[in-house]
Amino acid sequence: MRGLAGRRAILTGGASGIGRATAIRLVEEGCHVGIFDLDFAGAEQTARLCAGKPGRVLIYKVDITDRDAVVTATDVFENDAGPVELLANVAGWDIPVPFLDTDRAFWDKVIGINLYGPLNLHHVVVKRMVDRGFGRVVTVSSDAGRVGSSGEAVYSACKGGVIAFTKTMARELARKNVILNVVCPGPTDTPLFDNFKSSSPSGGKLAESLARAIPLRRLGTPDDYPGMIAFLLSDDAGFITGQTISVSGGLTMHG
Ligand SMILES: NC(=O)c1ccc[n+]([C@@H]2O[C@H](COP(=O)([O-])OP(=O)(O)OC[C@H]3O[C@@H](n4cnc5c(N)ncnc54)[C@H](O)[C@@H]3O)[C@@H](O)[C@H]2O)c1
Fold it and tell me: How confident is the model at residue 91 (pLDDT cuts 50, 70, 90)?
């Protein structure tokens, strides 16, 4: 893809699942990637998987719910690698529970990671992009944020929230040469999805019935997403902003 080689990217959630697959792809494309993740050992494993590829991986233990920690890690990344140009917000978390059985502490945790996390990254990193007159951002939401998902009411609210937030930021920042888009995965076989399976008494059957509901007849895998995320961060996507794209085997189809 055009315009990725040599670019400096911050990517949250790169220790696992979709974030790990995306980190590997961006490093293959020649990006210098700073992984911000709570799971340092997982991020180290991602870095090992990137060995020998053209770009570089730098890893930082960061809790994205903590704005000060995001500032510190961004400062260190820019000191290590140079000014950040690309941002991929991939970190996320949920455990499916019917909304009426949840409590305020659970809402705070879900909102902290899935909404405050991306807000913190935008507030810190996108500000620097604006100051320099260039930036590209992809935020991973979910089809839950477009069509809902039983047992994931607060998570869905956050994921719908980042879609509306991105559209607004895309309008505010278009003239600053910062473009922002959203990718919505459908059900995807990652450690996060294991939380979903273990919340259901029928476990594996849940995965089978979800797969049957997907026109392409399978769950997503982490490798289904990096192509779209890398494209939206590349110069090939330079005239695309404020868009929401489902990568979910046809589960949701928006005109
Ligand atoms: N797996 C699915 O079915 C699915 C479906 C739709 C959307 N998504 C979204 O895709 C993204 C990636 O999910 P995944 O399935 O790869 O999950 P995953 O659990 O494999 O990876 C999530 C990563 O986020 C990190 N993380 C969580 N909280 C953090 C915090 N406070 N600070 C820093 N890092 C933190 C975790 O350590 C982990 O490395 C998430 O935003 C998720 O909501 C996943």
Answer: very high
Task: State the catalytic residues.
Answer: 155
Mean pLDDT of 4-15: 98
Looking at residue 187, its pLDDT comes to: 95
Ligand 1 pocket list (CB less than 6 A): 12-13, 15-19, 37-39, 42, 62-65, 90-93, 113, 117, 140, 142, 185, 187-188, 190-193
CATH class for the domain made up of 8-247: alpha beta
Output the pLDDT for position 97. 95
Distance CA 160, CA 158 (A): 5
Residue 202 vs residue 82, higher pLDDT: 82
- Whole-angstrom Cα distance, residue 165 to residue 148? 17
Average pLDDT, rounded, for the chain: 96
Provide the pLDDT for residue 203.
66
Residue nearest atom 14 of ligand 1, based on CA coordinates = 17
Ligand 1 center to 15 CA (angstroms): 9
175 CA to centre of ligand 1 in angstroms: 31
Q: Which residues of 65-88 are buried (b: 16+ CB within 10 A; e: fewer)?
A: bebebbeebbeebbeebeebbbbb
Report the 10 Å Cβ neighbour count for 218: 14
Q: How many other β-carbons are positioned within 10 Å of the β-carbon of residue 105?
A: 8
Task: Determine the pLDDT at residue 207.
Answer: 85
Residue-range domain boundaries for the chain: 8-247
